[in-house]
């Protein structure tokens, strides 16, 4: 059964977006590994059925690119959100949302599968094909160009990622949302 993502409904719940319909959830997840199924730790098959939780980054990207319908329950009932409205909500509710979204969108546009990197000490993990298909070769940490960073933090991230055979990419985003990437490797003299 083919599902048009542009006909799927999702609902904003503070800093997450929930897709309650299991068929829509499955279509969105398997289209390029967006979000996480609720109650399913590691999806193995397209027959897995459950609601889907999207980050605001993922929901905004899907709203812009595939027409996902995102609704907000306000005083006047359900209200559809535009991409601009969801972007503003993201800025209000998520620290560094502008920079994180710029990097997320750039990496998705380059054809990578971008997933949360929290358990590996970074903002994102990048896959060439997707979780369960290949391992993420990179972890990405986003910084603003005006941000001061303790070198020990970079070493911590690098060591953790290196221990699981991933390279650290530092994404530096300037005021105009231009991104500079640096790949760090361990060097043994």
Question: Could you describe the 3D structure shown?
Answer:
This protein is α+β, with helices and mostly antiparallel strands and 189 residues long. It folds into 2 domains: 1-94, MutS, DNA mismatch repair protein, domain I; 95-189, 3-Layer(aba) Sandwich (Trna Endonuclease, Chain: A, domain 1), CATH 3.40.1350. The protein has 5 helices and 11 strands. The chain has helices at residues 22-32, 56-66, 83-93, 97-109, 151-163, and strands spanning 9-13, 16-19, 36-37, 52-55, 69-74, 77-80, 113-116, 124-127, 138-144, 167-173, 179-184. Strands 3-4-2-1-5-6 form a 6-stranded mixed sheet, with helices on one face. A 5-stranded mixed sheet has the order 7-8-9-10-11. α2 (56-66) runs antiparallel to α3. The longest helix has 13 residues, at 97-109. The radius of gyration is 17 Å and the shape is globular.
Rg over CA atoms: 17 Å
What distance separates the N and C termini? 56 Å
Structural class: alpha+beta
Largest sheet: 6 strands, mixed
Integer tally of domains? 2
Strand content: 25-35%
Shape: globular
Mean pLDDT metric: 93
List the helices and strands and how they pair.
Blueprint: E1 9-13, E2 16-19, H1 22-32, E3 36-37, E4 52-55, H2 56-66, E5 69-74, E6 77-80, H3 83-93, H4 97-109, E7 113-116, E8 124-127, E9 138-144, H5 151-163, E10 167-173, E11 179-184
Helix pairs in contact: 2-3
């Amino acid at each position: 059964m083919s599902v048009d993502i542009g006909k799927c409904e999702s609902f904003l719940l503070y800093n997450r977006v929930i897709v309650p319909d299991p068929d829509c959830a499955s279509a969105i997840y398997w289209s390029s590994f967006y979000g996480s199924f609720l109650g399913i730790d590691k999806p193995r098959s397209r027959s897995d059925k459950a609601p889907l939780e999207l980050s605001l980054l993922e929901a905004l990207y899907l709203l812009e690119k595939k027409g996902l319908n995102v609704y907000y329950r306000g005083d006047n009932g359900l209200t559809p959100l535009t991409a601009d409205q969801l972007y503003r909500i993201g800025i209000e509710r998520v620290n560094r949302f502008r920079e994180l979204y710029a990097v997320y969108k750039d990496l998705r546009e380059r054809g990578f599968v971008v997933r949360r990197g929290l358990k590996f000490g970074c903002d994102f993990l990048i896959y060439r094909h997707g979780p369960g298909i290949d391992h993420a070769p990179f972890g990405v940490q986003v910084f603003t160009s005006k941000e001061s960073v303790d070198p020990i933090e970079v070493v911590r991230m690098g060591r953790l990622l290196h221990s699981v055979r991933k390279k650290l990419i530092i994404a530096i985003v300037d005021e105009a949302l231009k991104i500079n990437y640096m790949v760090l490797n361990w060097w043994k003299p």
